[in-house]
Amino acid sequence: MVPELPPLPALTRAEAELIDRYLDVVDLLGRINPARPGDTYRGLRAAQALVAKATELRDALALMHQRGESEVHAPTLAQALRVLDGERRAARVTLPPDADN
Questions:
Q1: In 1-101, at which residue ranges do the beta strands (DSSP E only) sit?
Q2: In which domain of life is the source organism classified (predicted)?
Q3: Within 13 Å and on the Cβ side, how many CA atoms surround 40?
Q4: Mean pLDDT of all residues belonging to the chain
Q5: Cβ-proximal residues to 40 (8 Å cutoff; 6+ apart), any chain
Q6: What's the mean pLDDT in 81-100?
Q7: Would the pLDDT of 101 be above 70?
Q8: What count of Cα atoms within 13 Å lies in the side-chain half-sphere of residue 74?
Q9: Which is it for the CA torsion 14, 53, 90, 7, positive or negative?
Q10: How many other C-beta atoms are found inside a 10 Å radius of the C-beta of residue 8?
Q11: For an engineered disulfide with 15, which of 11, 32, 42, 48 has Cβ 3.0 to 4.6 Å away?
């Protein structure tokens, strides 16, 4: 059986959109990461999709700003990212451990 995930913290609709779009961008950057194995076509497709996802991320932030949500509540959003496996997903963007060490 799959363990039950902790619940997402209470988010505004705009914050939830921000988290979703941010993770979309992180996932694509992980696919593009030249330090990770993969083929160039996969990276090319991810780079092409990144343009649209970055625009959606910008729009989510703009919506928050327009609604008067002027502060990012980092602890709450970090908790949401953890629940949504953000740590593992973001790790794909960094350099993998050095095989020589």
A1: none
A2: Bacteria
A3: 0
A4: 91
A5: none
A6: 89
A7: no
A8: 0
A9: positive
A10: 14
A11: 11
